Amino acid sequence: AQTVTQSQPEMSVQEAETVTLSCTYDTSESNYYLFWYKQPPSRQMILVIRQEAYKQQNATENRFSVNFQKAAKSFSLKISDSQLGDTAMYFCAFMVNQAGTALIFGKGTTLSVSS
Amino acid sequence: KAGVTQTPRYLIKTRGQQVTLSCSPISGHRSVSWYQQTPGQGLQFLFEYFSETQRNKGNFPGRFSGRQFSNSRSEMNVSTLELGDSALYLCASSLDSHSYEQYFGPGTRLTVT
Description:
A: four-stranded antiparallel β-sheet; B: seven-stranded mixed β-sheet
C-alpha cells in the first residue's frame, strides 16, 4: 500500500521569504505521479504542481518548484517570494499511473504567510 | 468553461438517515472521483466512476455508494448515517480514467447530529 507523510503540520513565513514543505512517500510502484495541491481557507482545492516519477528534472511552476528525490522517496515543495495569497493548507499527493485517478494524500501542512 | 459543481453545499442530517450528494463534472470530463475530508483522517479516496462504471474503490464500508449517469454527473449516497460521517465531501473530475489532472469542486459539508 502507498502512504504519503507530511511531517510539518504547520509553518509560518513572512512575505517575500522562501519556504520549503516536506513530503515523503512509500510505494513499490515504479510508475507514478506526485502532486502538491493547495486548499485556501474555505476555497476549492487547486493543483499547484505535479511531477512524473520517470522524469529526473524537477518540476517548476513560476514561484513553485519541487525537489524530487526518487531514491529517497522525497518530494518537497519550495515556494519562493511568498505572498499573502499563498496562505493555505498544502497537500502532497500520490497517484499510480494507469491505475485510475485515485489520489493518496498526506495529512497536509498549514502554511501561514504574514506581512 | 464551468468548473466542477457540487450540490448541496451544506447539509445537516440526523444519525440513521441517508443522504445523497451530487457532483457535476467539467463539460467533457468523463471521470469523477469522490473524497472524504475530515480533521482526523485527512483526505481519503472513496471511489471513482468512469463511463457509468465504478473503476476504483477506497476502504469505506458498504454504506457508502455511488453511481454515474450517462452525462457523467455523479451521485454518492451514504445510508444509515453515523456521527463520524460528518465531513467535507469533495468531488473531482478528470478527462478520463488515465488523466492525472483532476479538478476539484467546492465540496459538500455534511454534518450529522
